[in-house]
Design brief:
By secondary structure, the chain is an all-alpha fold. Helix 1 crosses helix 2 and helix 2 runs parallel beside helix 4. The chain contains 8 helices and no strands. It is globular, with a radius of gyration of 19 Å.
Length: about 190
């Protein structure tokens, strides 16, 4: 991806769209933009391959918003992240295609939502959060979880069961990526008490 951002930025410099002195800034911005939209592209692509684009997009929407502020497991290398994300999205889209919109899904979504509120934000080794950031992220997560919960209920009441299922799976996926960090933290805490 670094070669791609270099190529695009160098092309912009040759076209006199940006100055050579701003090269690193534009490389960083382009890289950040790619990281922001890559889940949407990946989910849309996998959904397209499975003939279920709306499943992919509806599933990734709550995930992208919640994941930004909730934290959780992160792969150390970009290619591992993309391959792992692709595999997880494939499984989640397949799951959303075969799930029933019933009370079991509702209970799982409520448990996942409570877990997100209770444990978020989880900072990563690559990006430590200070106290103010943690407080701000916690407020954002509470708001977003409530928003997506109400949206999920509204979609259910409107009979849009596919979207209800996909939103719920997106919430479950976000929570699932926190589980390894929560377990690691609990094990570390238990070890320190001994």
């Amino acid at each position: 991806m670094e070669k791609c951002t270099d190529t695009v930025v160098n092309w912009m410099i040759r076209c006199n769209a940006i100055k050579e002195t701003d090269k690193e800034l534009y490389k960083y911005a382009l890289y950040s933009f790619f990281l922001l939209i890559s889940p949407l592209i990946l989910a849309g692509g996998i959904g397209f391959g499975l003939g279920r684009v709306k499943h992919g997009v509806a599933l990734i929407f709550p995930f992208m918003v919640l994941r930004k502020f909730s934290g959780g497991y992160h792969a150390k290398k970009l290619h591992t992240c993309i391959m792992g994300s692709g595999f997880l999205l494939f499984l989640c889209i397949m799951l959303s295609m075969h799930m029933q919109c019933d009370w079991k899904l509702a209970i799982a979504t409520v448990i996942a939502s409570v877990s997100l509120i209770a444990f978020s934000p989880i900072d990563s080794e690559n990006r430590r959060l200070d106290t103010d950031e943690k407080r701000t992220y916690k407020k954002i997560i509470v708001f977003c979880v409530i928003f997506f919960g109400l949206l999920d209920i509204a979609l259910f009441l409107l009979g849009k069961y596919v979207y209800t299922i996909c939103f719920s799976v997106g919430i479950l996926l976000t929570t699932g990526l926190q589980v390894p960090c929560i377990i690691k933290k609990m094990c570390k805490s238990t070890k320190n008490k001994r």
